[in-house]
Specification:
140 residues; 6 strands
Length: 140
């Protein structure tokens, strides 16, 4: 015959008053992984005390991580130096921004101004609440 045990509340009585006020009385709803990542984007990645800096994106001041890359590392839009006259060089950056900070995601070929300098959009990749915007400019 199986042995029966008394309920835990009778064995270990815990008065409501003995629980610290800081502990929730009912279980709290956990954030989803996506919610946690979105919070990290703003609190860590796009924190001007960490990685980000303020840039002017088409007249609007936003926080962004500006990653300077070698132009030949970007594949796709205008990535080849072939066909360019001698003395003309391509510069490239990847701009990481919150998708909430831009009115609409830029499209390939769009021209955007970053801190007063005109850039051409190559590729835009959504990355969990962020946009990675590949930009190029031509220098001579």
């Amino acid at each position: 015959m199986p042995r029966s045990y008394p309920p835990l509340e009778k064995v270990f009585p815990i008065a409501e008053e003995s629980c610290p006020e800081s502990l929730p009385k009912e279980p709290q709803k956990r954030n989803s992984f996506a919610d946690d990542v979105r919070a990290d984007c703003g609190e860590t990645f796009l924190n001007d005390g960490e990685f980000a800096r303020e840039v002017e994106f088409d007249g609007k001041k936003i926080l962004a991580v500006v990653e300077e890359v070698r132009a030949d590392e970007l594949k796709g839009y205008g990535s080849s130096q072939r066909g360019r006259p001698e003395g003309v060089f391509r510069r490239a950056v990847v701009l990481h921004v919150s998708e909430n900070d831009v009115p609409r995601p830029p499209l390939r070929g769009d021209r955007v101004r970053i801190d007063g300098e005109l850039w051409t959009v190559g590729k835009v990749t959504p990355e969990m609440g962020m946009l990675a915007i590949e930009l190029e400019a031509i220098d001579s």
